[in-house]
Amino acid sequence: MRTIVKYVMLDLLKNRIVMGYTLLLLVISFGMFSIDANSTKGVLSLMNIALIFVPLISIIFSTIYVYNSAEFIELLVAQPLKRKALWLSIYCGLALSLSLAFLIGVGLPVLIYESSATGLVLVISGLFQTLIFTGIALLASVKTRDKARGIGVSILTWFAFTLIYDAIVMLLLFQFSDYPLEKPMIALTMLNPVDLSRILILLKLDISAMMGYTGAVFSDFFGGKLGMLVSAIVLLLWAMVPVWFSVKQFQRKDL
Amino acid sequence: MLIASNVTKTFGKLKALDNVSVTCNKGQTIALIGPNGSGKTTLIKTMLGMVVPDSGFITFDQHNILHSWHYRERIGYMPQIGRYPDNMTIAQVMDMMKDIRKSNVLDEDLVKEFKLPALAQKKMRTLSGGTRQKVSASLAFLFNPDVLILDEPTAGLDPLSSEILKQKIIAEKEKGKLILITSHILSELDDLVTEVIYMQDGKLQFHKSIEQLQQDTGQVKLTQAIAHVMKTH
């Protein structure tokens, strides 16, 4: 497995898009921190980058990469290699290089300007988004044979997690505003890795006081040890479950 | 050595393989013949584990190949259309394969005879179809495998290279390896094969030794024998 990871990594590190992505993140991060002397504002802006832009790039780039590696995959399945190992190697290669890009592009500036617990939560959340959306990309590309459709599915998935899901939650909130919704809200948040990460970061920023009663309930749950543990487990599950399903699918795929 | 039992595979509505059972033994050179779309390549791909059959199973040395991968160390496969990562050079592809197989005994006869070292730094996407075929052939023979599976090996090769490849196949046949070839150029197979498998519409029509086929059809040449078969089927 290490051999294949090596070849995928070598290919990706030479890739111009990964390099451009790293540079872009670096420029944005330094820019955000230098605009304002208050680095908390920088963290807030970077949060949106880490929770919207990073998932988008991770999911689209990974989907396209897997489709473009069709020849590579076809060549290697006829070789004495485990299919599972081959697929996981591609995932590891992608996840490692995109994480590296994020660590350099966002981790480094955060370390310089805001090396606090908040900064750490931001970087960890961004890393999780990279892992999660790379995994979803692999699932999307193994399920659909057609490249254009696969990319479409990926973009829609990203839309669903960053926009549509929030809209539905809002709708529910207004429709059922007469009922106590705090506990169901926590459950709903768990179902979306982007929302979950956002709340974790916002709570670290201590502006949850502005979020009213729901904010207090969130702060009570996610601020505690149990909440942290549950959130970490949920994010880990989000990173592992799609990949696991894609492996199952790839093992039965005809090439 | 390589046995397929009641293998069935459907792609949507198309039955690519319909209850196919074949037995391939060591030392045989088998021609896989049939019209286009008769399931030859699908059969080969199921043997390599690239296509998973809907029902039936395939064994390699008495071991079911499902979920197994070690057996592929002993197979050299030359695909019909060799597809390679576009931005890798010939040398990089070769090195990667050596890295994966980790075999010390290399058979570089074909690499030398096809003069591939002179092209080693060329990217795969710039290669002509014939040169790709040469790379595929060299890779199939490189690790000195016990079983060779060649899907249309001479398609796209110039006459000289085609002859080099044919001589190499004969040399390997003499070493007692199992060789499976599909080809539409039957005249080429004449002095090569010992057995013939004939497929049509995903069904196995017959599996006979060449002597048996000559006897049954009354023809000496494979071309005529198969033409005779095609007319009567």
Automatic annotation (TrEMBL), chain A:
Transmembrane segment boundaries: 12-33, 45-67, 88-113, 119-139, 151-176, 226-245
Keywords from the UniProt entry: Membrane, Transmembrane, Transmembrane helix
Record's keyword annotation contains Transmembrane: yes
Descriptive protein name: ABC transporter permease
Native species: Lacibacter luteus
Automatic annotation (TrEMBL), chain B:
Recorded superkingdom: Bacteria
Family annotation (InterPro entries): AAA+_ATPase, ABC_transporter-like_ATP-bd, ABC_Transporter_VariousFunc, P-loop_NTPase
Transmembrane parts of this sequence: none
Domain ABC transporter positions: 2-226
Listed GO MF terms: ATP binding; ATP hydrolysis activity
SMART domains: AAA
PROSITE patterns: ABC_TRANSPORTER_2
Keyword Ligase: no
Keywords assigned: ATP-binding, Nucleotide-binding, Transport
Name of the featured protein: ABC transporter ATP-binding protein
Native source species: Lacibacter luteus
